[in-house]
């Protein structure tokens, strides 16, 4: 692995304008994430009780309801579900040894609002770019202190500065959509998981040379080990014009590739492998309190079995370049409002609501 220079820009540095390519692999990622988790936890349920309890204790939880209180959109009067899926990139604890850019704390690198309408036969996942400028509402921190509301805050800074509950509250305020569940996946935690399953196969259509993450890949198909996989989800400087919208596509591609590998493992036929994989996966998970057990995750995953993959899609929140700072984006109107209204109404997303000026259409 090549070494990064001693002085480099943070991922929070201004992102250059982007061509928007690289998001094609995002289709079906939300369903794959949750069903992939279900495959592992259902298989893990067949282990001994003490092993099961050990895995159960790996899962961290956040009491979203307590943290936010009543200042939330009303729950939909249907059996539909909305899940905020967040891919975090922690630089804390053991993960610090893996850090190439030496940025402290943790960041929310990938955020998907997965909407599953009543009947649970279709779904849509809305990806929110991390560089989007938003209005952050008043939020309570874990220590009980309160953070005042603020305008023009970069979306991914909310997680590191205030915490996951504030991310949920911000998404609810900007969309008017009540989040029923929260699932956070620590990308650095994937290093051990990828190594446990023997690597993940990805295909890239262009060379990647990123001196910041250390990733060096030629165009084609590659089997990534844990360290390379972590570099892959952190890479942005070596893709396209070095912007963040391209990284969204890489991260979605990696998540799908990872879950495909998990599905192909002989979990039921190899209890030892099952436990090893489930141990790494659950250690990388944080959920809301209502999902924080193997049993509850498995039950929820099974409830999604009726979702038809052919009707599942992942789209990006329509954004436009900010007029004050063209290195940031803002929600494009009226497209964004139209999109969120369709989610609230369990309606088909209009094609007009999928057009993003920052992506050329």
Question: Rough shape?
Answer: globular
Structural class: alpha+beta
Tally the helices.
11
Strands, count: 17
Radius of gyration: 19 Å
Q: Mean pLDDT, as a whole number?
A: 77
Give the termini separation.
38 Å
Uncertain parts: 1-31, 97-104
Q: How are the strands ordered across the major sheet?
A: 1-14-9-2-3-4-15
Q: How does the major sheet shape up?
A: 7 strands, mixed
Order of helices and strands: HHEHEEEEEEEHHEHEEEEHHHEHEEEH
Strand content: 15-25%
| Helix share, percent | 25-40%
Task: Give an account of the 3D structure.
A seven-stranded mixed sheet has the order 1-14-9-2-3-4-15, sandwiched between helices. The protein has a two-stranded antiparallel ribbon with strand order 5-8. Helix 2 runs parallel beside helix 9 (271-283). It is built from eleven helices and 17 strands. The protein is an alpha+beta fold. Strand 3 (106-116) and strand 4 (124-127) form a beta hairpin.
